[in-house]
């Protein structure tokens, strides 16, 4: 039984489509490999400079030991730490972006200039109380501690108590928040008010956070970075984002956050106020999203060429379908390679223009005329324009893609509504 040539060609085109799917899969794997190397570059910078920073403090700490006699007449002891969070914490400052590179890969870092002002109405929370009847409690002197996620990022720190500078020492002396600095507070009276000010220069990678461990916390930050991502447990109450950068103001009270209680319990999963310096257009994320539409591009192009065959009688060889599909597939590889050296929009325009130009001149010979070639190239250009819209409009990508596919199907049905498919198959067989 002789196979219908139309169905034989469709089978061949199905095989071609599968092969192109494998090519797109390989390009997608390359994108993921480059993205993994980007993450490795970020980790390398963090290991050499400092990682994301979260600041906790100033908080007062005092280490105590309780001793008592048990029922057998033996002496037992327990060590414990008293903490006193401030009644009010005010943080102001700015984050200066500093871009670091590992080869081709860019990592966003920052240098922060911060001023932290903490006030206590009294420090009665540092007064020791024994848990056992008749026990003896001995405590060391109180100290003010400030914890940071990565102490390597500490450039300078000026800690003052009621306007007088304190001797800053490394480490916090707190077991749960060991990384940071502290300063002894000799002669601290529980009933008196206390004010501590810290001028801090801190560097970090990508993200900065603050633990609102106070009765009332306010933070005002500004930066020249134009693309912040506000996160953590609380968003800023006011924020401005523009071409000159961003400014944000946070305000949190102990009614909304139990960060002070979490710190007293030594909990490391505390509430934070966060801001992250992100790249709005990550070339690897955008390339990966673009490749997901690759097979749809190939299918739409094959349908266009097939319609041209049906409507004009011009025969196109399966090898020509394969070459057209490869040109479309290699667009994504060209986009990936160019986006590592230039802005993503410029890379996209160059790659799309190159692919459209090659397909236009090839389609002119394949379809029998420059007019048809230009029409084909224009359709490819429109597809690339639609793809860019889909990439940028992430929230509405689904509805835009659905409308475009429905519009393409409507055009195909309109153009082929008068075709006699049975006669077409019979004539092809003859």
From TrEMBL:
The chain crosses the membrane at residues 293-312, 319-338, 344-364, 371-391, 397-415. Keywords: Membrane, Transmembrane, Transmembrane helix. InterPro entries: Uncharacterised_IM_CreD (IPR010364). It holds the Pfam family CreD. This is Cell envelope integrity protein CreD. It comes from Pelomonas caseinilytica. The gene is creD.
């Amino acid at each position: 039984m002789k196979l219908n040539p139309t169905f034989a060609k469709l089978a061949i085109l199905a095989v071609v489509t599968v092969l192109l799917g494998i090519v797109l899969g390989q390009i997608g794997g390359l994108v993921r490999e480059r993205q993994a190397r980007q993450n490795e570059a970020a980790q390398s910078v963090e290991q050499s400079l400092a990682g994301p920073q979260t600041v906790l403090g100033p908080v007062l700490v005092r280490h105590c030991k309780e001793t008592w006699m048990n029922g057998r007449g033996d002496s037992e002891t327990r060590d414990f730490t008293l903490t006193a969070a401030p009644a009010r914490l005010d943080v102001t400052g700015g984050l200066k972006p500093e871009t670091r590179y590992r080869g081709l890969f860019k990592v966003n870092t920052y240098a922060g200039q911060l001023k932290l002002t903490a006030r206590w109405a009294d420090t009665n929370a540092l007064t020791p109380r024994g848990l056992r009847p008749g026990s003896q409690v001995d405590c060391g002197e109180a100290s003010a501690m400030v914890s940071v996620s990565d102490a390597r990022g500490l450039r300078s720190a000026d800690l003052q108590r009621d306007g007088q500078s304190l001797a800053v020492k490394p480490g916090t002396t707190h077991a749960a928040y060991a990384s940071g600095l502290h300063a002894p507070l000799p002669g601290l009276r529980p009933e008196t008010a206390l004010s501590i000010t810290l001028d801090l220069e801190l560097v970090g990678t990508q993200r900065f956070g603050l633990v609102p461990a106070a009765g009332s916390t306010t933070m005002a930050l500004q930066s020249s970075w134009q693309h912040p991502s506000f996160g953590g447990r609380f968003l800023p109450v006011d924020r401005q984002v523009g071409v000159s950068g961003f400014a944000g103001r946070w305000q949190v009270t102990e009614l909304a956050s139990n960060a002070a209680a979490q710190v007293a319990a030594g909990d490391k999963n505390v509430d934070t106020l966060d801001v992250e310096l992100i790249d709005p257009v990550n070339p690897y994320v955008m390339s990966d999203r673009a490749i997901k539409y690759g097979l749809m591009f190939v299918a739409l192009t094959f349908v266009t060429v097939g319609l041209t065959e049906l409507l004009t009688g011009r025969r196109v060889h399966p090898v020509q379908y394969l070459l057209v599909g490869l040109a479309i597939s290699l667009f994504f590889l060209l986009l990936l390679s160019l986006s590592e050296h230039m802005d993503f929009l410029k890379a996209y325009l160059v790659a799309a223009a190159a692919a459209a130009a090659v397909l236009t001149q090839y389609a002119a010979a394949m379809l029998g005329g420059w007019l048809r070639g230009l029409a084909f190239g224009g359709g490819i250009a429109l597809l690339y324009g639609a793809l860019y819209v889909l990439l940028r409009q992430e929230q509405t990508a689904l509805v835009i893609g659905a409308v475009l596919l429905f519009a393409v199907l409507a055009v195909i049905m309109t153009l082929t509504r008068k075709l006699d498919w049975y006669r077409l198959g019979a004539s092809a067989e003859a």
